[in-house]
């Protein structure tokens, strides 16, 4: 159970740093005070505690206090405005929300009849108040929900993925074992804590390991580089962060940490190699999702192969299945990646239909989660590669185009900072690939298309190449392809970047 893992770390490491400059003992006391405040506001077992804030201590305290009380933490993207918030609140029905000042006006507009709103600064004041009462831990069954994370899906009804106490414990112990995470490790995180990558892989696993985590409010390449130079041993980021670190001035040193991890989106082989060439560090790429934490990662002992997401984490099972039915495909064939194990979530909160659709039963009765990602297994070294999302597969004139394959080539061309390849409806071919490019400066589209033509089969070469000042990204820094599709391919005339900027 996850709280027992924290308590074990605290028992051994009371005076060691846990979160920034708070020791394990100080953090435990702060959390017990915040828990007492939540109890005073009516939070009981199974009640939801919404957390709407950028990274700061109130968010960590609220999350840990909810776990201690057997309540369910519901972290919410602090960039959400009233409409999105209203959807989440109506679904989760929180008893309390801990809210950063900047988010408060939007939360108030969306809060309706729910319970108390606690200001994040007030929560931090209570946490530091030596006279504040402390609450005792409440025990719940390890199958109970501990966390509901609303998936970043941008269409349809928001779905709250429920992770149990057992799921969190499984995810933390899997990462700790696979990455040889030790009590003397210091992890630097600039990922948002409202997402599984930052909250579970970062904060939760770090506190179970007995190590220290330093959390940045947001990612700033220069500040992160400077912080890494101070006794850090690990950094977890998304690919965009590695791109930004590579863009720092040439004289910016970067600490040779024992572990740089990238995930949440595909890391292009180009960035992988450029990072190694410049900083001497071989990034370990891993693959995960809100619904199961983490499934695959490159071998810690190596080789850490660009374009591969390696092997299953300890205790995790994966297989590559046909898309229409459960049928394990032969090695090398591309199919849907299915995931099973103690890390796989309970289901979607109050949404049995979506939950049923998310799983497939195997021949032996195994309940497999359908990742929606296309993958292939390489028998030579028993590793997996992610080819892309099923929904993003482009079928042009009967041929399959995996956007990632085109993106990897495009990103290796000079002047391309980032790119996305999407399918555009086409009368003759059904769909044709179209490329969107974020350029480092003025760029020659015709030359890029010619370079692609020299390296890819003709049906894979984009029929159009749109150069943009910046590709849309979500709060995690991941490319937002649905947004790009809505903006440029939804049947409306293509707006110029200037129109977009003025919109
Ligand atoms: P989320 O639930 O927001 O974390 O998104 C999970 C999705 O991110 C997965 O289903 C994949 O499509 C994508 N993803 C995560 N890690 C990787 C990776 N290493 N390579 C490619 N796609 C990834």
Describe this protein's structure.
The chain has three domains: 179 residues, Rossmann fold (3-Layer(aba) Sandwich); 129 residues, Rossmann fold (3-Layer(aba) Sandwich); 110 residues, 2-Layer Sandwich (GMP Synthetase, Chain A, domain 3), CATH 3.30.300. Helix content is 33%, strand content 26%. 47% of the residues are buried. Helix 1 packs across helix 8, helix 4 packs across helix 5 and helix 10 packs across helix 11. It is built from 16 helices and 26 strands. By secondary structure, the protein is α/β, with parallel strands linked by helices. The C terminus is likely disordered. It binds adenosine monophosphate. Adenosine monophosphate (AMP) binds next to strand 13, strand 20 and strand 21.
Question: What's the gist of this structure?
Answer:
By secondary structure, the chain is of the alpha/beta class. 33% of the residues lie in helices and 26% in strands. A hairpin with a 3-residue loop joins strand 24 and strand 25 (430-439).
